[in-house]
């Protein structure tokens, strides 16, 4: 029942989002190619859209994955936390401390810097 | 059965009226700064009608399916967020045992959908907006997770209704003072609103939606507004005690608290300067993420002590 309501809400919103776009546009002609150049602040498109763009979040992504793995451990941990008491605090504190060293290392290596 | 239908109706009403409320509140909040011209009450409606009748833009070789799907998907994610909000102990559309995790997945998938919007136009400026958003999304998601786990600790559950019940003695906004401010940062990031509008900012001529006009633009703006409402409702549930409150019935309290968080977010959006994209990532990982660790440890120690 819970999931049925969720699926109904999901499909209602998805359908509404598509209908809002499809209904008014279904009879509109697509603009001709001369009008379809990308907007570049008045410049001409000399390069491909997938031109080199130096955003270096690959090391940051690795750091994120380390924390995401921890999250998998953390969801069940949150439920039994009060039951386990101080031991749970210590365990997670140690885990977080080790991962925090990773953040400090990544910071030193300039992972969070865009240049 | 009747409860399910009522909650379904509730979510639909919020889906339809939410964007209008966001637009009106945004104009009311912006009026003293003079940032927005036009009628407060009719302005949003006339803008929506104008967008509906406007010609839709096209680029040379866009990914049509993804381009049309991304606003609809963003709206659907926001609707899923609304579905897990408990309006009262029984009036809730989807009361899963893991509804906190479900909300977490909405936040994570939003990054994918917003990247899709910028990627599918096949133009430089939207793509840069999308790249920027991924960097922001990767940064705020962990803060959100730690703050939400902090909320789940005293409840000993990952269910939003349990999270609310655990706040009967004291709301989380007082018990975990770092929680709500950090979560508000997440909200501004999730909807790329105000200071964290890196994806659709004016320095990229509109960013991911630079090439979008007409009905698709309307769908994108609607989805963003609904996401803001869904986030406010979740924040009210997690930190402001959800349906708890004297005299008035539960759903009214949830609505009032949601509106309060919404107004605060919109006010912040107009008052705070936009964060420079190159500083934002360092700020999130080096300052705000350790603060969320502190919040979690604080919440944990307090949950054991209480």
From TrEMBL, chain A:
The chain crosses the membrane at residues 57-82, 89-107. InterPro entries: NADH_UbQ/plastoQ_OxRdtase_su3, NDAH_ubi_oxred_su3_sf. Keywords: Membrane, NAD, Quinone, Transmembrane, Transmembrane helix, Transport. The keyword Transmembrane applies. It is found in: Cell membrane; Membrane. Its EC number is 7.1.1.-. It catalyses: a quinone + NADH + 5 H(+)(in) = a quinol + NAD(+) + 4 H(+)(out). Its main location: membrane. GO terms for cellular component: NADH dehydrogenase complex; plasma membrane. It is a multi-pass membrane protein. GO terms for molecular function: NADH dehydrogenase (ubiquinone) activity; quinone binding. NDH-1 shuttles electrons from NADH, via FMN and iron-sulfur (Fe-S) centers, to quinones in the respiratory chain. Belongs to the complex I subunit 3 family. This is NADH-quinone oxidoreductase subunit.
TrEMBL record, chain B:
InterPro entries: NADH_UbQ_OxRdtase_su1/FPO. Its main location: membrane. It is found in: Cell membrane; Membrane. GO terms for biological process: aerobic respiration. GO terms for cellular component: plasma membrane. It is a multi-pass membrane protein. Pfam families: NADHdh. It comes from the Bacteria. The keyword Lipoprotein does not apply. The chain crosses the membrane at residues 6-25, 72-94, 100-121, 133-153, 173-193, 225-244, 250-268, 280-305. Keywords: Membrane, NAD, Transmembrane, Transmembrane helix. The keyword Transmembrane applies. GO terms for molecular function: NADH dehydrogenase activity. Belongs to the complex I subunit 1 family. PANTHER family: NADH DEHYDROGENASE SUBUNIT 1, NADH-UBIQUINONE OXIDOREDUCTASE CHAIN 1. This is NADH dehydrogenase subunit H. It comes from Modicisalibacter xianhensis.
């Amino acid at each position: 029942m819970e999931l049925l309501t969720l699926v109904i809400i999901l499909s209602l919103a998805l359908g509404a989002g598509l209908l809002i776009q499809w209904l008014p546009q279904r009879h509109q002609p697509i603009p001709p190619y001369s009008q379809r150049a990308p907007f570049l602040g008045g410049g001409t498109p000399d390069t491909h859209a997938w031109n080199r763009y130096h955003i270096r979040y690959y090391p940051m992504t690795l750091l994120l994955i380390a924390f995401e793995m921890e999250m998998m451990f953390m969801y069940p941990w949150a439920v039994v936390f009060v039951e386990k008491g101080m031991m749970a605090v210590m365990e997670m504190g140690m885990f977080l401390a080790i991962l925090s060293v990773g953040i400090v290392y990544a910071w030193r290596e300039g992972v969070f810097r865009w240049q | 059965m009747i409860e399910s239908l009522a909650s379904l109706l509730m979510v639909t009403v919020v889906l339809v009226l939410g964007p209008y409320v966001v637009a009106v509140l945004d104009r009311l909040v912006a009026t003293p700064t003079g940032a927005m011209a036009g009628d407060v009450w009719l302005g949003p409606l006339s803008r929506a009608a104008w967008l509906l009748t406007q010609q839709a833009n096209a680029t040379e070789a866009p990914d049509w399916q993804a381009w049309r799907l991304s606003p609809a998907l963003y709206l659907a994610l926001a609707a899923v967020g609304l579905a897990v909000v408990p309006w009262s102990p029984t009036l809730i559309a989807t009361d899963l045992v893991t509804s906190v995790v479900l909300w977490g997945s909405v936040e994570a998938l939003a990054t994918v959908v917003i990247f899709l919007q910028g990627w599918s136009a096949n133009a430089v400026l939207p793509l840069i907006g999308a790249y920027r958003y991924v960097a922001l999304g990767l940064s705020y998601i962990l803060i959100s997770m730690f703050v939400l786990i902090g909320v789940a600790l005293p409840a000993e559950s990952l269910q939003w209704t349990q999270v609310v019940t655990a706040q009967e003695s004291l709301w989380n906004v007082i018990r975990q003072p770092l929680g709500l401010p950090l979560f508000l940062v997440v909200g501004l990031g999730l909807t790329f609103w105000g200071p964290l509008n890196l994806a659709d900012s004016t320095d990229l001529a509109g960013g991911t939606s630079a090439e979008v006009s007409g009905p698709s633009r309307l769908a994108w703006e609607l989805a963003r507004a609904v996401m803001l409402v869904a986030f406010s409702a979740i924040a009210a549930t997690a930190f402001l005690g959800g349906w708890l409150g004297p005299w008035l019935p539960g759903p009214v309290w949830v609505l009032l608290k949601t509106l309060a968080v919404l107004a605060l977010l919109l006010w912040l959006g107009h008052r705070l300067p936009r964060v420079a994209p190159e500083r934002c990532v360092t700020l999130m990982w080096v300052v705000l993420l350790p603060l969320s660790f502190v919040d979690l440890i604080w919440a944990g120690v307090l949950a054991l002590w209480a």
